[in-house]
Design brief:
The longest helix is centred in the middle third of the chain and has 14 residues. The chain has a seven-stranded mixed sheet with strand order 3-2-1-4-5-7-6, with helices on both faces. Helix 5 links the parallel strand 1 and strand 2. It is built from eight helices and seven strands, in the order H-H-H-H-E-H-E-H-E-E-H-E-H-E-E. It is of the alpha/beta class.
Length: 191
């Protein structure tokens, strides 16, 4: 299915639970080091949201960065991913900093306010990118930031450009275009 048809029909593939092992593997850190990617984006005491958290590859590093006074909301569409995250967080001693939240395909269903949101390799899986971006914009505090990264091998340059334009119409402003391996990425601030 081409990108245009995919956008029209909302027929987006969600990464299945049986790929969770790769999503949380130490080998993946060689390509996407969470500490390097998140450095300078999150401070102690922040509330951060990991959208499409999977088994917690970014959630656990976020929980370390926000510290004891901070909070991470880990959002996923698949209950099994959240269960895996819980086990990993327990073993790491970070579960008290992480709230797991099961969303639906059509809505994040969050009312909390956050300082930072991460949408790593998941926005292309949403059935309605504009609605998703509006919802993320609404959950961020004024001045809050969103790091959006999409895989180059799934999301073409033109499709990513359209996503950036949609983000602009919801009130996001691009502040940086970080270089992340095999990715198209933008850092936004909520105006």
């Amino acid at each position: 299915m081409n990108e245009q048809a995919q956008e029209t029909t909302g027929a987006n593939h969600v990464c299945p639970v049986n790929h969770a092992g790769w999503l949380a593997s130490s080998l993946r850190k060689l390509v996407h080091n969470p500490d390097a990617i998140l450095r300078g984006l999150v401070r102690e005491g922040d509330t951060a949201v990991d959208l499409g958290c999977g088994p917690g590859f970014f959630t656990l590093p976020l929980a370390r960065l926000v510290g004891r006074e901070g909070h991470v909301i880990a959002v996923d569409l698949q209950e099994e991913m959240l269960r895996m995250l819980h086990g990993r967080a327990e073993r790491a001693g970070l579960s008290s900093r992480i709230q797991r939240h099961l969303c639906t395909a059509g809505s994040l269903g969050l009312t909390a306010k956050a300082d930072f949101a991460l949408a790593f390799y998941m926005a292309h899986e949403t059935p309605d990118a504009a609605a998703f971006l509006r919802e993320v914009h609404g959950l961020l505090s004024p001045g809050g930031r969103l790091l959006l990264a999409e895989p180059r091998f799934h999301v073409g340059r033109e499709a990513f450009r359209r996503t950036l334009a949609l983000a602009g119409t919801t009130g996001f402003r691009i502040t940086a275009e970080p270089r992340i391996r095999f990715s198209r990425a933008a850092l936004f601030a909520r105006d």
